[in-house]
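Me: I keep going back and forth on a fold encoding question. No explanation is needed for now; the record alone will do.

Assistant:
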Amino acid sequence: MKPLLLLLICCAFLFNAHAEKLPAPLPNIESAAFSKKLKKTLKLTIPVIGVEELATTSDQYLLLDTREREEYDTSHIPQATFAGYKKFDWSILENTPKDKAIVVYCSVGVRSEKIAEKLKKKGFTNVKNLYGSIFEWANKDHPVVDKNGNETKKVHTYNRDWSQWVEDGELIKVW
């Protein structure tokens, strides 16, 4: 009886240890095609947060826009801080505690994932990537604002190829 009990305890321990390494389920994306594209494009090396979760908890995060200035000026998520991509502005994080909750985003999540990896290497421990990034945010009809803080329907789509993933017909695609 004792060997069987010991075996069961060991199996339970191994199962729990393995279960902690399993990735969390990905947030829901409206478009099946966009969801498939994201799964193929992102490495998922950084934990993700869904658009709906961020929309209800955004005040808990430092929100960093990791696109280029022209993209940010066209439109960005309210309360987002411009951080840049090619020339990421590290000075915005000078007085930020390493355990501060940070969400990064770009157009679809590729550039922000790379920035998040750099943040992790610099010691930031609570970094998430917005799954679907600003495209999914806008597709789900959450507001975006221009460089003056005014709500806009414009979304910078990076280029013509990526613009197909901005699917809300009321949005104006800029590239």
Q: What stands out?
A: Confidence is low (pLDDT under 50) at residues 17-22. The radius of gyration is 19 Å. The first helix runs from residue 2 to 19.
